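User: I'm writing a tutorial on reading structure tokens. Could you give me a worked example: one chain, its sequence, then its tokens, then a sentence or two explaining what the tokens reveal?
Assistant: Sure. Here is the example chain.
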Amino acid sequence: MPDPTLDIPGSEGLATRGSNQAGMRAHNERLVLSLVRQGGELSKTDIAQMTGLSAQTVSVIMRGLEAEGLLVKGEPIRGRIGQPSVPMSLNGDGAFFFGLKIGRRSVDLALVDFLGNIRGFRRQVWSYPTPDAVLDFVEKALPILKGELPKKLQSRIVGLGVAMPFQLWSWIEHVGAPQHEMDAWRVRDIQSELAALTGIGVHVQNDATAACGAELVFGTGERPKDFLYFYLAYFIGGGLVLNGRLYTGRSGNAAGMGPMPVPTNSGEPRRLIEVASMSVLARDLEKAGEDARQLWETPDWTVKNSEVLDRWLTEAANGLAHASLSATTLLELHSILIDGWVPSEVRAEITRRTHDAFHKLDLSGIEPPVIREGTVGPQARVLGAAAIPLAMRYLTETGVS
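And here are its predicted structure tokens:
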């Protein structure tokens, strides 16, 4: 029998064989929701063929998910032999999730629905993050966003995901923050403090890994089975998907590509973080007399000094190309995806330059990956944060390994 998952983009990583045992019902419900999320609209017959579950079992599961408000019926498809096929799709009002992005220059809080749409958003720009500043922001912003939902839907808020750089006290020389204030991150348990403050479950993940998770859960177009993901922000970050699953590694910081040494035009190797981070662009703009604060206020920033921007794009692309080659040599990746807190035209240009720089390298013995733009965009980190409780509660085989 042909693999029934091949027509579903990105479903290669799903464990698509269901079970008819009563004890596996929760797993089967998550499996159905995962397939519908990736397929868009699927009928009971589609699900039964993909999973191997009996038609009766699938019917019971999908009726239950519809009763819970997680699935909605589409228009019947007529013209085939037998009863009309009724496709089912996800209900955007089925569940809601808070996503909190803690960054070195800003903090974002979003209320995200079951489809990945941002229903409410708050943002604050700062010079550097402290635990107290984060807690104060959440204490003020979260009730406002919750209040923007109709009361009947507020009970459907499932949890809070947090996307933040690990070891925030590191690289202080690049951030310009007082060491003693950043050292607070060493001893504070932000996960427990946020849980006590909000009264809901809290889950924490590295910010670039979370952005990669947003691409996996909410991304559009082809979802390759294995890909490396770069997110351009104050510091360059990365995420990794292997066999359709988000891989976080032993400490949760797998594919944190910033420390990777890469060649430079000067001949001296430097860490990727020192050539491909937006902090490098900000520093060079300020040296040239241009105010760089706008870079952190909106992803639709513009740069007056085109020479500085061009130099950063070239150096960043060269660094990304070398890092991509190293990763591909080790992992045989299908794709390299590039996204970030940047205007769409900047993302397109740095992706193009990375592709060109990569193909100028010695690729002997390498099957070149596809190098393309990510599809989620600047809000990938906060959406990725919201995707953490979503995946833990409602998806299967798209979590961590």
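What the tokens reveal: The domain at 222-374 is CATH 3.30.420.40 (Nucleotidyltransferase; domain 5). The chain has three domains: 11-90, 96-211+382-394, 222-374.
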